[in-house]
Amino acid sequence: MLSLHVNGKKQQVYVAPDTPLLWVLRDNLEITSVKYACGIAECGVCTVLIDGEAVRSCSVSLQSVQGSKITTIEGLPADHPVKLAWIEKQVPQCGYCQPGIMLQTVDFLSRQADPSEAQINEALDNILCRCGSHPRIKKAIKMVADMTKE
Questions:
Q1: 2-73 in CATH: which number?
Q2: Start-end of H helices in 15-133
Q3: Nearest CA to 50 among 23, 28, 68?
Q4: Which of 35, 101, 102, 112 has its CA 20 to 30 Å from the CA of residue 144?
Q5: Which option is the CATH number for 81-149: 3.30.70.270, 3.40.50.11190, 3.60.15.10, 1.10.150.120?
């Protein structure tokens, strides 16, 4: 049995220590906002926060996150600036990739409070969104930056 700290709650799971975090979150804890797409940490769809840092959960073993605080999109409060901006700018189209992008945004803005358009583009460069909502995502990120510097 291994323990995890997910979205502020301690969880016990009975899985092999080398099981990818993605599958533990989805299959054992039923947190289906964490999506599977590429399985090789290339697309960003499975991104979660581990101790505040955006990490691709498909490439991280359960054993490697013991003692860490894991946050999925459900772990952000409803009034979190990223969630508010995503709603205000009507970002999602299909929504499949949005939880991962939102969590990567939280990490990005924690390190770059007032990003330029080029920095936003670079931060999104390694996340795939097939429905093409990147223009709205960029507007939402800028909105969050503006909200948090006030």
A1: 3.10.20.30
A2: 21-23, 81-88, 98-111, 117-124
A3: 68
A4: 35
A5: 1.10.150.120
Q: Is the entire prediction scored with pTM above 0.85? A: yes
Secondary element (H or E) of residue 49: strand 47-50
* Averaged pLDDT for residues 36-63: 95
Cβ distance 3 to 12 under 8 Å?
Answer: yes
Confidence of residue 130 (pLDDT cuts 50, 70, 90): confident
Structure-block tokens of residue 11: 């969880």
Residues 96 and 92: their CA atoms lie apart, in Å, by: 8
